[in-house]
């Protein structure tokens, strides 16, 4: 429990769980976030060399009802999903069903249109395909029809020549990679995750939540914004924004960064422009058309392979524990998958991003403590979620919450927690 909040004029928030004594600093940071009013509800879990060393939770899962955050409260973890989807693709590659170096059209013939004949599966996994935006608005009736959405992308022309640049495919990543997976396996990403990863390994992780899981999921809420970036998708959804950028602002004059042309400045400016590539990439399918935005059952059960994972912190950390331990992919497969394929200015986010085969590597979009700079991999999620694995240090960690960050960049909460973990090693 923590009483610091009372001393700072905030209501007392109880936190639960435990830490190995070596990781007591992690508990202090976790409690401090509640004391400072940065959290509504949250959970953080860490495995070291396969053993649990941190399992913390606290606060409320729903600010409207006051429902408490329990040890098994799941949350929609947004783009943390991308690493799970990449893992499914790599699992199929290990079995000889998929060649990531081959053209997408080899398994998806309809994709070979409008200059996409030579786009490879690797281009999809590394955000180099030039298809970060779905140009036609997706009707709500199509939200759960992933092949139909993928077909729209198959008919589009790339925004840049595939393979010549990378730019974050915030939502399209999932529909593209997911369709490749469906073509070679006959199954959705969610079906394979349940049958071959989370089910056998006992992980609280679903790509597409069953009704019972969706009913107890945390309700995502917008944080207190000091300015206005792109408008919120719903009263309970965060502003349209990327996973790494500066604090929300209301006018160009307030933008961070040294001057126009500075990547941080340009990213913040894009967040103010409804028609920017960044906001277009995040805004279709238009989740704001559903009551409650991303909290709506349609989103929770749809299993979009770019943002549809519903998981507990322990389930997300366990996923990385098992990846690092070689229980999901062969060690050689993982070593190759986390090798940096692209690094540098992101065509959608402006700031530097770095990717292996679907996994983020340390960069401004995936802030990592210095000790993990060479070996950490994983993925962030809009608003502050984090999944991280580190084979060099034997780590798997997961952070989930429901108070979406009030900054375009997402919160530094996850980074502080990760820093406390590395400092405790």
TrEMBL record:
Domain Beta-lactamase-related: 28-421
Keywords associated with the record: Hydrolase
Keyword Hydrolase: yes
Ranges annotated as biased composition (Low complexity): 239-249
InterPro entries tied to this protein: Beta-lactam-related, Beta-lactam/transpept-like, Beta-lactamase/esterase
UniProt cross-references to Pfam families, sorted A to Z: Beta-lactamase
Protein's UniProt name: Serine hydrolase domain-containing protein
Organism: Streptosporangium fragile
Lineage of origin: Bacteria, Bacillati, Actinomycetota, Actinomycetes, Streptosporangiales
